[in-house]
Amino acid sequence: MKNLYEHLLLLRSPGVGAVTYAYTLHQFNGDVCAALDALKPSTDLRDAVLREMDTAAKLNIEYISDDDGRYPAMLRLTKNHPPIITARGNIETLSRATVSIVGTRHATAIGMNFISDMAAAFVDHGIVVVSGMAIGTDSAAHVGALRSNGNANTIAVLAGGVDYIWPIENESLYYEILERGAVISDMPVGFIPKGTNFVQRNRIIAGLGEKLILSEADLKSGSMKTANFAIQYGRKVYAIPSHPADSRGAGPNSLIRSGVAILCQGTEDFFIDSKIHDENKKNIGSDNSILEKLGTVPLSESVLAEIVGKNISEIKRELVILELQGLVQKCDTGYIRV
User: Which of 22, 44, 147, 175 measures 20 to 30 Å from 281, CA to CA?
Assistant: First the structure.
């Protein structure tokens, strides 16, 4: 990203979040240097950003802005998404098809086993599992994803800096995710999270997934907030029912009862739906306007959108499917047909 230091300086300024960042840049016609001249950031803030960038370089942490091709496509589609995220591990993981899995930290053994098996099944189908690396359901999702062979299996979204391991009980899991997946955050490197930061983390988890699975969760839990964010983003939400006498069943049961979530009774039930999805993917591959327009000369997403008369969101989704099928390949300047 050009002028990364200046953009971070604006984003790290007191009171500046995604909305204010975008508004400020708009006010100065995208000129971040002009914006900083008006804001006059302190010497302490300037030094802090330089230290952060130095630490990031030493730890192989990358800054990925929303105009970077590596920025997660589904997250970019969400309103007020983080303009810059930090990522550590296998960056390729961020460009894969995704599913988010969330649930309580106080999950039952049977619930965790169920989630672990489901996560492994998703990875076996070429889909990356996204969760928040908390104990309980999150850990089960990551561990299940890592049971499968290969890399780019799972993404952990942290509420603190991407280098800040929380909870400490998951230290070994954190490093295993780095080896075979990615850890991301929108917080500064080295940042120690506060309670309010977990809500923003939940927004990112919801935004990253093409669909979301809710396991055991209390009615007023963070996992329920994540599911509601996913619903707001227009994502398909699946809920795993639990016994009504258990408070951990209140969240998923309520979403099923209200009709905003799809009943998920088991891996086989879920992948019955996926078989239909797989058939749709075959149809896309055999008769697809995007595929017809691609050849050996790379075409960008925006050019493809203009040629086939679709919006960028549709183009991105179809390209992800075609890439997973091995029918197209992403290059520096666009996509080619394989």
Answer: 147
DSSP H helical ranges for 12-155: 18-27, 32-39, 43-58, 73-76, 109-124, 137-147
Amino acid making up residue 222: G
17-46 pLDDT, tens digit each: 999 999 999 999 999 999 999 999 999 999
Quickly count: other Cβ atoms within 10 Å of residue 282's Cβ.
Answer: 11
CA-CA distance, 175 to 180, in Å (whole number)? Answer: 9
The pLDDT tens digits for 65-99 are 999 999 999 999 999 999 999 999 999 999 999 99
Q: CB of 168 within 8 A of CB of 135?
A: no
Q: Quick one: which H or E segment has residue 200?
A: helix 197-208
User: Any idea what the Cα angle at residue 231 is, between residues 230 and 237, rounded to 5°?
Assistant: 80
Between residues 138 and 298, the one the model is more confident about: 138
Tokens in use for 226?
């994540």
Q: Which domains does the chain have, with CATH numbers?
A: 1-58 (no CATH), 91-272 (3.40.50.450), 288-337 (1.10.10.10)
The long-range contacts involving 68-71, CB below 8 angstroms and separated by at least 24 positions, are 68/1, 69/330, 70/94, 70/95
CB 21 within 8 A of CB 32: no
Contact 113, 143 (CB under 8 A): no
Taking Cα atoms as reference points, which of 233, 215, 216, 228 lies closest to residue 260? Answer: 228
Q: What DSSP assignment string belongs to 117-135?
A: HHHHHHHHTT-EEEE---T
Per DSSP, 332 falls in state T
* Mean pLDDT to the nearest integer, 312-328: 79
* Per-residue pLDDT, 306: 82
Q: Is the peptide bond before 41 cis (omega within 30 degrees of 0)?
A: no
